[in-house]
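Hi R.,

Here's the chain you asked about this morning:
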Amino acid sequence: MRAELCAALGLTPDDLPYAGELLDVFDEHAQWRGAAERVLRGFALSLLVPPQHYDAVAGWVNGRRLTFHGSGGKVTGAKLVYERVARQRVRLQRSEHDGLLLADCIDVKDGQFREYLINELTKRADFRCAASLEEFGSQRRAVTREGQVRSGERHEKDDRYRIDDPRRWVLGWANERKIAALRAELAELEAERDATACEQARLSGLREALQERLDALLRLEGFRDWADIDVDEAQSRASDLEAERVRLQAGSSRLEEIARALEDNAKQAEAVANSIEQLTGRLATTAARAKQAELDKNRDDELVANQPHGALAAARESYPALDERLGKNRPKRAAECAETENALAADLHQRIDRLNKELGGYAQSLIQSMLKVLTRWPELRGDMDANVDARQEFLAYRDRIATDDLPRFESEFKEQLNKNAIQELAGFNNWLHRQASVIDERVERINEALGAVPYNPGRFIRLEKEPTNNQDVAQFRSDLRNLTNDSLALDGDQYSEQRFLDVKRIIERFRGRDGYAESDKNWTRRVTDVRNWFVFSASERDVETGAEWEHYSDSDGKSGGQKEKLAYTILAASLAYQFGLEWGAQRSRDFRFAVIDEAFGRGSDVSTRYALDLFATLGLQLLIVTPLQKVHVIEPYVKAIGFVDNPTGTFSRLQTMTIEEYRTRRDGRRP
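And the predicted structure, written out as tokens:
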């Protein structure tokens, strides 16, 4: 699969290595190779993708069904796991441990992926190499030589394959041991295959011999007399008869002539007898037909004679139409008339049913057209219904529209469309873009404040925004742009019927369509809130070069301290955006008040100081509710204190003081 991927993108396997190709176990820790293979197998089979190739690889993988060719050329679905390797990463600090860690047993190959792999091993191979079960049970994360893995309270041991089987190993850039093991297995399987083929050939021959004997025994059951299978006796009798035939033929040629004459006479006699039989049958058939014809004629004459004169006259008037309809199927005798009548009636009923179905289809189509009219102009529902009986009302409505001389109002309609609907949409579009510009300005102001506070040593953080990929928002902005590009033009002919329909469609969604009111309301809220036009992220950058060090679209995969700092940054940015702060103002009468309730109680001191520096830079007035354990961190930023206690357990007391008064009381001095 990697070869196909590299061929499609013009890359080499060195550009997209598997993690296992860059990791190996040190020789001095060879006894831990099986454990390392168990723990790191999933990561070792992951493809490493540098950032410059990420978009191409993701597009290639997403654009096809991943497959591989299995045994017999069968195409089977495949699984691919790949890791995006960041351009720059901070090397993670390993936890302090007294014993050997599995990560210490792994050698990492030099190259562009080395730093990334070292960081990943710090997270993925942070297991104590336990030499005994006592050591294994005393550690939160540990692994034994036998492959038992502990992670907190979860324990796992996968013995579906032997831990010392080199055929299953995936770590290492030198695979001679795995190749040797696979070759040995191949030789063993080939020898087993050859032995199986020989045994199969022997059994096939034995089966064929037994089948032949079985067939012979089955044929033997069909004979009941020895004479039937006495070959010698049959051959002897055949020889005697053949000798007798030869003797007789050689004795007299006249005998042969007599035999031939007798044979010819027998054939002629048979032919004459056949002719007599055929003629007799034809005569009998002709006589029967003549008699039946006489009977039919008499019956037909009697039937005609018994009919009323008026019925005969009416029937004779219908003869041309019946002749045309029946054609070659017209009856030849009076007895056939009843059958013809039934067939004709059945045919007429079928035609009536077919016409009724067609009429029903036309009625349904007519009703659908009526419903379309009533849906487009719901104000007509009070006067007209969608049923066939109301067709005259719809025809009258059509005639009224046709005679209302609507084309005379076309220019006025286009002028109103230009002055009202289109220009109103243009004004609305401009207002939305002004709101988007306000977001740009506020983000820049926030970034000015964020740049003044070090996020990490030598680095700062800034907010980034990009257009959203939401299809509803993108389509709405495109529709507004297409409708309002020429809104100030004076030529009314450009406003076609299609443009009117587009304007009508947007306005109807703003108002809420029948049956879609709630979804249209949500759609309107989503597309007209310009905050939904963008997606926001945080970018950690170098102070000197401005190069991006880390990109945060969310907090997944981050440490607790990183999550705290990122949360404080987002909180500060949200407050700044909400207050619309004006940076650099020498004096401000804004009251930028925020209450923080025990937000710093569980955080680290470093994260707390970062948050307070950031809030101070933003010029926020904070009311911090916090337990006493964080007072030493918060104190340098505090101007006034409200101290709450409850000495009796009944009533709480509140004492307010300046920071100087607090320090004096804390140090035991009276002011």
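The radius of gyration is 51 Å.

Let me know if you need anything else.
M.
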